[in-house]
Amino acid sequence: MVVLAAGMLSAACKRTVEGEDQAWTANVKRVQELAAQYPGFAGALHEQQKRAEDAMTAARAVSDKEQAAKQMGAANGMLNEGFVYTLGQLDPRTRALRQKLVDATTATEHGSDQAGAKVATDDAQRILRNVDDTLKTGAPDAAGATAVLRKIDGDLSSASSNLDRVIASVKARKQEAAKAAAATGASGASGAPVAAATWKCTYCGHVNDATAKKCTECGAPRPDPNAPPKGGAKKK
């Protein structure tokens, strides 16, 4: 059964000429959409597509179907690799970063949190502005696009990590505060005696300091706060 399952998996993962043709059509459409979305990179995208098209043409000329499909898969990979992949991920990444900006701003309530959040949010806003400007400018060729998008990728990752730390710090602070509040509530509900600043002598009524072990007026010992009340106390 194991051998049969392995054989079925291999057949399912095996490349086919038809499957690679379909993938190629979808990939070319995606590259064209990116060129329309980021016109500054249209030249670089065309250059990448041309290289991949040459590889795809050569792959389709291979008579062995298995080898042809393998080489066509490589051509598909060539079309999607490098800066093309990074460019395709920019829209969801920038939207996610903008949401983290909102989260970091609304989460900070304490002064110390606000100070740390301001540095991270200001930096993220600056990076997003730079990304927008760079995407409008674009790059003249594939090599330039690779360098530009590598820088953008690093900046977005850094800004995202900084905001994550701010959000995590605020969350941890709130959790600790909630635990402390819960512990205080539990202690109060347990009925444990709370230390008083003073105590009143049950014999003479004199008010003594909390540190006094016996009444400074009549010398009577300090009553046990846990002992049940007794009647017949003398009055002054």
Shape: elongated
The biggest beta sheet reads: 2 strands, antiparallel
Strands across the major sheet, in which order? 1-2
Q: State the helical fraction.
A: over 70%
Mean pLDDT: 84
Task: Say how many strands there are.
Answer: 2
In short:
This protein is an all-alpha fold. It has helices at 2-13, 17-37, 42-60, 65-80, 83-107, 111-137, 142-189, and strands at 198-200, 207-209.
Task: Describe the protein in words.
This protein is mainly alpha-helical. Among the domains are: 67 residues; 90 residues. Helices cover 71% and strands 3% of the residues. A two-stranded antiparallel ribbon has the order 1-2. A hairpin with a 6-residue loop joins strand 1 and strand 2. It is elongated.
Tell me the layout of helices and strands.
Blueprint: H1 2-13, H2 17-37, H3 42-60, H4 65-80, H5 83-107, H6 111-137, H7 142-189, E1 198-200, E2 207-209
Antiparallel strand pairs: 1-2
